[in-house]
Design a protein that fits this description.
Number of strands: 0
Distance between the termini: 49 Å
Strand content: under 5%
Structural class: mainly alpha
Organism: Hermetia illucens (Black soldier fly)
Pfam family, one: Retrotran_gag_2
Protein name: Copia protein
Largest sheet: none
Order of helices and strands: HHHHHHH
Radius of gyration: 18 Å
Amino acid sequence: MDRVSAKRNIKPFDGEKYSVWKFRIRALLTELNVVQVVDSEVPDEITEEWKIAERTAKSVIVEYLSDSFLSFVKEENTTKEIISDLDAIYERKSVATQLALRKKLLSLKLQGDIKLIKHFTNFDDIIRDMLAAGAKLDETDKVAHLLLSLPNS
């Protein structure tokens, strides 16, 4: 079994939790040694190695996009352009987005019927979305917010 077809915990992107999806896709592209096609500009002189890396990275992204999002993957687009297009839509770096996420974080409370691991996952998702939206959070802020989300007991 090759490395690309190995079972992954990456759900096809359907418009939800973009930052989680992008993190997993970048990890996979890094593992496959092709993340440079996302991070770098297309070289003036395109080598065969670059073409292979571009095809591999584009294939990975296509594999992990739901059918309704395949319009982002046009034949003429590079992998870098595909990720940039998705970033422009789903990584909303605005003050309004940051404020909405801060409100969501402040209202997050551990409920009695929710498992602790699920609560931590929800907390991490909000923090990741805030960072993707351009918010600045140091470790002390994260710990304080996490503790505020837990009951006194």
